Protein 1
Amino acid sequence: MAETIGIDIVRYRPEKDGEPWLQHFEVPYEPDMSVLDALLYIKDELDGTLAFRWSCRMAICGSCGCMVNGIPKLGCKTFLRDYYPQRVQLEALEHFPIERDLIAGIDDFVVKLEEIKPYIIRSDERPVAEGPFTQTPTEVDRFKQFSLCINCGLCYSACPQYGLNNEFMGPAALALLHRYNNDSRDQGRKLRQPIVNAEEGVWSCTFVGYCSTVCPQAVDPAAAINQQKVLSLVDYAVHAGGLGDSQDEPS
Amino acid sequence: METSTTDIVIVGAGGAGLRAAIAAAEAHPALEICLISKVYPMRSHTVAAEGGAAGVIQEHDALAHHFDDTVSGGDWLCDQDVVQYFVENATPEMIRLEHWGCPWSRRSDGQVNVRPFGGMKIERTWFAADKSGFHILHTLFQTSTKYPQIRRLDEHFCLDLLVADGRAQGVVAHDLARGVTRMVCARAVILATGGAGRVYQFNTNAGIVTGDGMALAYRHGVPLRDMEFVQYHPTGLPGTGILMTEGCRGEGGVLTNRDGYRYLQDYGLGPETPPGEPRNKTMELGPRDRLSQSFWHEEQQGRTIDTRWGAAVNLDLRHLGAARINERLPFIRELAQAYVGIDPVSEPIPVRPAVHYTMGGIEAQLNCATRLPGLYAVGECASVGLHGANRLGSNSLAELSVFGRLAGESAAEYAADQRPAEPAALKQSAAASLQRARAVIKPSGTERLADIRRALGQAMESGLGIYRSADGMQACCDKLQSLRERYAKLCVTDTSTVFNTEWLSALELGFLLDVAQSMAHSALARRESRGSHQRIDGYTTRDDANYLQHSLASYRPGAAPHIEYAAVTITRSPPGVRAYGGELKALEQTDG
């Protein structure tokens, strides 16, 4: 008989269930199966009503985040071989409301991404006829890493501050803000500064750093937040000293 | 059902849909745009494109070269007026993306870099390492948030188009999280729903790539054009089909068979080039159709490698060295390590062809208008006539930028002249659409969804693969008909409204079956070999006298599609010999 692995899933169907409940499944085990593969097997063969998000199956679309034995992970890049023969328990990403089964309601996170003005802001739009901007390797290095976020939301599930108070802008949104502020093509830093300085901005972060640990793309939002704290302090000192605004504001 | 009205509704928020939304907002700032996606925009399959986007940028390159590469790459089935517009506008779009923050890879002097790509005479593929689609999609999504007139309905599944008085006037969409259905009335509708690669069992595509928009337009009488042309990408990971970008070969990776032999030289793509020194339009930089066909021959002759996931060849990057792999192909290294346990720095990656792209799609004119007034189509779901019988790598990310903008502008111009939609007149039709969609839910059904989906994928692989024969294609058509009958008896047990993903999968399977039928019947009717449509049953060569024509598949409820043909627009490049490698060189020398 083929080997199987136990998968326990926290189910919640809003139209039926008062409370989340645990359901056990036995899934045929192969060493190259991902958690997502197991979920697809369950949906196809055992219970068609199980709901979860997925799409690319190659860790780039950011859909399939869930808690795997209490740790936020991407289902498509988490392999059963790392748990077998132990059981695996899956539930929706923490710190978000459960919409249904493994589907977390992430609208708050998406709104925060939009709120940080995640686009190049310039006082003068550069005409296309003038061609691309030039950016030296050093200038690219200042923001490139922070542009790699796939918006999977794992860092929000990892963040204790967001768990306590979801007014906090949170790791991915602040890392994205840092990405645009650090882009030599952008002049919008001053417009984003109130978001950085606000109570729900970088100062809510207590630098636990778990966001960076769980990030599947090594974006390191904790570093982004820390660098913004330093810049925020420099701004404060400069303003307090009456030296005027920083140079990169729109003219 | 909740009702709302808007000016333009866009279905699909991948690269094409987002670019269209931005263009419409910029062209007519007073118009409201409703952008609907069955996922969040950044989940769209554009995200998985790796290699890059084409646009002439180097001094020694020319628009005419990009034009010629595209037309010969498409085996002369491209509409040449469309190709001309495309090559002229691709580079400005790449620059615009740069201005919006797209982190294109650069040279050490800070200028944007370009890499070689298959079938391209000169390096013109703009790239962001090996996550080009990811960066384009996120740049467009983030930029789109700047425009307050773009109102998004994320995680809304489009059930149907609303058509009245002979024009498209909106859509019916189900809000997955809230479990309510919305009628969105609009003056113009743009479909940007992507391809249909999921009709095949083994593909590089995301789970969401199910031909939704193609099927919706098709059911409303808009023909699907050139659907027999399905691209097999030559380098997918065995087992999963996960894409190993053509950029691997652009950077100098080579393909070898079980004897370590660079087999492409046996299939008109040689002479062999030194490893790590790729030569444009030669060997590994031949076009995708030719490379996938070469694999098929190697497999027939027993020269492929047996892996636990089936036959494969080796994609060898070792000679590039760790530094270059980390700089140019970091994602490839990560994916190969995770999904086949191979580090390409020290071992070759097993690869095999996998279905990747639908060249055909919803028939559309150059400006993306379909024959149904008010309905526009753009991106992979559309056939504007750019790709012909085989798309060149890096032309599709450029396509969604160029034609995304054009679709947005065309639809905005049209919408601005239309009266606002009248919801009262559309209500009945919307209710009927919802009722039809809900009728798929049948707990008493006897057929299992997974069984039909699997049988569909297998039927397409065996009957409509890299090489085709009349018998095989007829068997595929027959199988699809029987699957359609089984689909009518489908069992769907979940009767809920909130995130009822079983219901959505059933609807997607219905879309896939319609699209598959259009592909199979279009293929059976084309008695020649051209580009990705290759026959081994006597019709082994191109037949310009009879088939230098686009196929058009029209939907007939309960019957096989009606197939007819339409002219291809030829401007300055009469059909010629499609040559690569040494053959091309010889041909160029003869021509002087």
Protein 2
Amino acid sequence: MTTATGTPGSPLHILILDDEPIVCKRLKPAFQKMGYEVETFTDSASALARLHETTFDIVITDLKMEGADGMQVLTGAKESSGTTHVIVITGFATLDTAKESYRKGAFDFVAKPFKLRDILDCVKRIEEKRRDEQAPDAPLTV
Amino acid sequence: MRHGLKHLLAFWRPSTESLPFTVLFKKFQSILERNNRILELMADMGDKLGGEYVFDGHYIEEVSETLGDLVFKLISDFSILNQHQNADLFLAFERIRLAIGEELSGQHILTTGEAVVPLAQLGHELSELAGAKMANLGDIRNRLALSTPGGFVITTPSFFEFLQHNNLLGKARPAAQYWHDQDEEALKHLADEMQQSILTATLPRRLSARILAAFDALAERRQQHNLRVAMRSSAWGEDGCSSFAGQYQSVLNVSRDQVLDAYRQVVASAYSFEAWHYRLYKGYHENETAMAVGCQMMVKGLVSGVIHTYAPHLAAGAMLASAVWGLCAPVVKGIKATDTIVLSRTPPYPLISLAIADKPKQLILAPSGGTEWEDLPEALHQVPCMTPEQMEQLARAAMSIERYYKRPQEIEWTFDLDGTLQILQARPLRYFGEPFAPKQLISDATRRAEIVFAGKGFIAQRGIAVGKVFLVENDADLAAFPHGAILLSRYTSPRYSAIMHKAEGILTDVGSPTGHMATLSREYRVPTIVNTEIATSQLQTGDEITLDATQNIVYRGNIGVLDHFELTEEEVFEDSYEYRLLRRLLKFISPLNLLDPQGEGFAATACRTYHDITRFVHEKAVEELISLSEQRGAQYLSAPKRLTTALPIGLMLIDGGGGTTCAPESRTVMPEQIVSLPLRELLNGMGSLGMWCTEPVAVDLGSFMSSFTRTFSASLASPAEIGRNLVVVLDHYMNINMRLGYHFTIIDAYISEAINDNYIYFRFLGGVTELIRRSRRAAFIAKVLERFDFRVEIHGDLVVGRLKKLSLPRMAERMRMVGGLVGYTRQLDARMHTDKDVNHHAEIFLKAMQSVIGE
């Protein structure tokens, strides 16, 4: 772990992992438009490697992938940093996978296809939650 | 009890081995459910193209499979209902399923295979065949009635035939791997080889003969011995979502003996390194490469140029034209200074600014072929090359094209020697500048605007429309629908597809977002709000409005800033493979070709999409159920219950399950024992407020003679023979066959909380007086039904009214109204002395109905 980007005031740092490039292609510009910093990956090995290098504020990961699956990425992300929030997105949504995701600490579980607005809202909720959590300690800056 | 029920329903399987009615009706219900599900899925898939959703390849595969499964089961259900094998339907299904499967596996499917198609027959629906660019020109010429140089297109099947003939398709395949490995050198080498091979390849003899024959036919038609043509690329995707501007080659001023070489040149340009690189960069797969070639008469241009319909970086609400003397090519290539003309986008498109360039030379057609530069007289060097009239004419045409494609356009044009404006090409203009309308600007503009209504109904297709309202009440209105208007109507109808290409938007009072029309709106991308309930009462023909079908608000007046914001939205998702694939798949799924149930083309063999099959089965299933009860019901009726009522209708009732609370073996049923909602409401309506007009009607001698001499068919036998009127009921369903007075009425209705399954079918026939009076009565019934949102058809004195997909309370109201109508019209034709009586009776009836149903 060499860098930390979760300091207040700096833009949220988001990692997106989905083996279908189209998902990354759609999500990246949408988040960039909101002012977030985005990195995208289409294989879980590179994403996990990146997670070892850097702390991300938010990880958005697909569930069913070759190699390490989304559950492993979820666990990996939570292990590398307790403050990382993970959103699981999947085209094979079942009640069991949803339950397991939450049990392993996922912030939210979103079934594909989803509306851009839904995932943007989800990220906004994380942002608000972080602000609330950080607010008591953070010095007031104007 | 069980035995009793069996006995009761025994008539449904007389001599042949028919299934019990309950089974058949279950199938009918299942058809309704599947129909609904299919329409919803299709609508969802269409919705995905709108850009709000993030979807992936897995979704496309899964939804295609689900949909295919549903359609298959729909046909299977129908086969049980109508007791036929329906081989034609299954074959149609199999063709569609196969095509979808091939698309999913990466094979591109072409539905037609003409080698050469005249421009006069082209439109965007043929873009697979003709390439996007030539298909667009077809629209511009044939739909927008603008001039384009005459000609034809050598189609994409010809491209495949040509390359296949020379074994060149396989040669291109390694490109994807080179791209993946980022080996540009290898790709460059492959591109060179590919182009060389094409330039020296032999054309199949049949193809070259077709091309030359088309050339000769064009020369003959235009009476030009020495015809010269321009050969232009028209590849898949070109001028569609990706502009491919300048990626492919055009060859100008081509004579007959150069045509085949020029064709090879244009085809070869599909494999230039730059074009190939661009395609790969955009994510195009190799199987998506196909080059049609347009072949159009050369136009000797007096003044030519390019116009961008949208140039907000120059001035708000501006468009930009660049113009030179002579041919258009120097403007496109950007190699000569041009006059720069900034015009307003608002009629009458006044000039905002004009910068005149020094224009010492012009490009002209060289007598020997090709083009050459020519010196201009000094007097022309520093004067504007366009007149104000030409500017206005150009602006009008350009805006018309933009409106059609709903994107800013980049248009190449020329004024020919006769002064006619010729459109040479039109492609979407990608605007990559700063977003034109910051949120602040939008909220300012919308805050000041008058809201006609907001939050009413459902958005069927997102988008913004600005234009004048045009109310459509009948087919004549539809035929007169003006270009660029916003369609306003009481109800939705798939018939509106006929004008969707020229409608800016659609607003209806009633209708469902999963209905046929909503699917069509998505297909044509017409911003549409249905079920507003009040649109026709708030708006009238000629009102200018801004229809915001993203926020679900209708504003009075033109809120241009909303419109412009939409024009500049980035839509890169349209360029992705998944998007293109889904759009291609939807071509086998959602277009509706079977529009008119009365038309000859309404046949199983004519089904080309899942939508066609679904529509066909729905229509036929309703017919089947009606004919089942009509033909078999009365004939095999053995032990029905007689309804005990004061109404003189002699009604016999069959309870198919859950329609009444009385015992199956009971021979009578009391009105309060009726559970069936449609029948209860119908009887309520019949018995309401003296609607049952029992006063004796004086039948004059003419009417009497007419009834006396008329030959009755079996179904219209003596009205004295009461006690044979039949109704089949379930809890939410009713099918009634009635002879009352001299009329024969069929009502088939399903009313429940499931809004999409709800319908009332009403058929009215017969009468004792002469035809003219019966026709008046038909007109009266039609008028009343239309007032209550029925879709009505009249054939002589046969009236058919159909109503679908309203909420339970509204359906119930209308059922009561139908009851009242049946009573009121019992002997009405004897009273219909003049045409005025039609309106008179309609008024009386509608007034009386107000208190019955509370409208």
